[in-house]
Amino acid sequence: MILIRSGRRLIAAAALLFLLPASLALADSPIKRIHSTNFGIDQGEIEEITAQMQAAVDGDFLNGALLLVGNGKGVGVLESVGLLSPENPKPVNQDSIFRIYSMTKPIVSVAIMTMVEDGLMALDDPVSNFIPEFADAQVIDRETSELSPARNAMTIEHLLTHESGLIQAIFSPDSELGQMYASELRGDLSARELAAKIGRLPLYFEPGTVWHYGHSTDVLGAVLEVAGGQTLDLVLQERIFEPLGMDETWFWVPEREAFRIAEPIHGAAMTDNTVPRRMLSGGGGLNSTAEDYVRFAEMLLNGGEYRGARIIEEATLEQMLEPKIEEDVSREYYFFGPVGDWGLGFHLQPTTDNPDGPYNFGWRGIGGTIFIVDQENDFYMIYMEQKWGGPPAPFNNNIAQQVVYEAIRN
């Protein structure tokens, strides 16, 4: 029995089953429940994991959270705890809406690769073919601030691998270029306008020489708009969401669905995701549900196809999962240091003590979400919470991944 926090009180979930569509999959839901032992996870292990999640809620670190483990046969673990917010005492479930932030990036990266397959672009195409402001790029010297012409043209592949020379103010706030980003990239810009402004700024390093997280996927969103001849929401609808049936993944949430939005308990309030904005951020603008993201994750686990709808060819996905941080590429800013690698839009993290793989792949969102796909062990995992600042919680997206692997291996 799952306990759900309401203020300081604990309420038995059994008394709230009529409120929990997570346990009552709808007819068109992608979630078919199967036994957790299909993944080597027993009921005792599920209860231990759920208790850890609940402890984070009871300690007022989180309002609520959800953990899901599945594969092409179905979902074997679907545990949720807590409420959407103190002001909205509805239980978190598979239909709750989360700001997935950078879990937008893999969706955009897959969309780019569908255009590569269709011949609308190539990985070695210069970005300036689509965003002219990137022509004649200059690299800033981090010591002297002097500018010099870039020797390498930034390509579509550089954007996918975060080896583009682009950064983001939040990840480099003390650098001169980071301060330029903070100053110049203001206002409600469109994806194309943001990319143009970035293109007029210097690069932080020579393309292809350093891994550095930043606005690369936002620029890919603008590239999709130019190549597709329509705004990013329509490109993603056509190439990803409609064929997968992801009808509850949006850049902004319809007002009629606002009652399902999860909120953080600490820090400043997250952006009101019901307000339409001109900026459709390919790097972090989407909102989604666990149920909707299952469709995307299952497609990736199944080699690019979801229940008869092929999004990308299996060979294309395999190409996306090839390690791209070569020996001559600096890992100075790589989040995982010497561990793992990066593909064309996904993290690649070893699932054993062997640093050379096998890898799982996926990515996370700054608001507390994560998804991973593990082809070797035939499962995907989705973890959803909303946390923005505050003290470190006893359960989070890193621990979610850790405890799932521990349970599978026991």
Walkthrough of the structure:
The protein is of the alpha+beta class and 410 residues long. The protein has 2 domains: 3-16 and 49-102 and 231-409, 3-Layer(aba) Sandwich (Beta-lactamase), CATH 3.40.710; 106-228, 3-Layer(aba) Sandwich (Beta-lactamase), CATH 3.40.710. Helices cover 28% and strands 18% of the residues. It has helices at residues 43-58, 104-117, 156-161, 176-184, 191-200, 216-228, 232-244, 290-301, 314-320, 397-409; strands spanning 3-6, 9-12, 64-71, 74-85, 88-91, 98-101, 138-140, 147-149, 286-288, 305-306, 309-310, 341-342, 347-350, 359-364, 370-374, 379-385. Helix 2 packs across helix 6. The longest helix has 16 residues, at 43-58. The chain starts with a strand and ends with a helix. 49% of the residues are buried.
List keywords for this structure.
410 residues; alpha+beta; Beta-lactamase; 2 domains; 8-stranded antiparallel β-sheet; two-stranded antiparallel ribbon; 10 helices; disordered N terminus
Outline of the structure:
With 410 residues, the protein is of the alpha+beta class. Helix content is 28%, strand content 18%.
DSSP helix fraction: 25-40%
Biggest β-sheet strands, sense, barrel = 8 strands, antiparallel
Give me the CATH fold name of the largest domain: Beta-lactamase
Low-confidence stretches: 1-27
Topology:
Layout: E1 3-6, E2 9-12, H1 43-58, E3 64-71, E4 74-85, E5 88-91, E6 98-101, H2 104-117, E7 138-140, E8 147-149, H3 156-161, H4 176-184, H5 191-200, H6 216-228, H7 232-244, E9 286-288, H8 290-301, E10 305-306, E11 309-310, H9 314-320, E12 341-342, E13 347-350, E14 359-364, E15 370-374, E16 379-385, H10 397-409
Antiparallel strand pairs: 1-2, 3-4, 3-16, 4-5, 6-9, 7-8, 10-11, 12-13, 13-14, 14-15, 15-16
Helix pairs in contact: 2-6, 2-7, 5-6
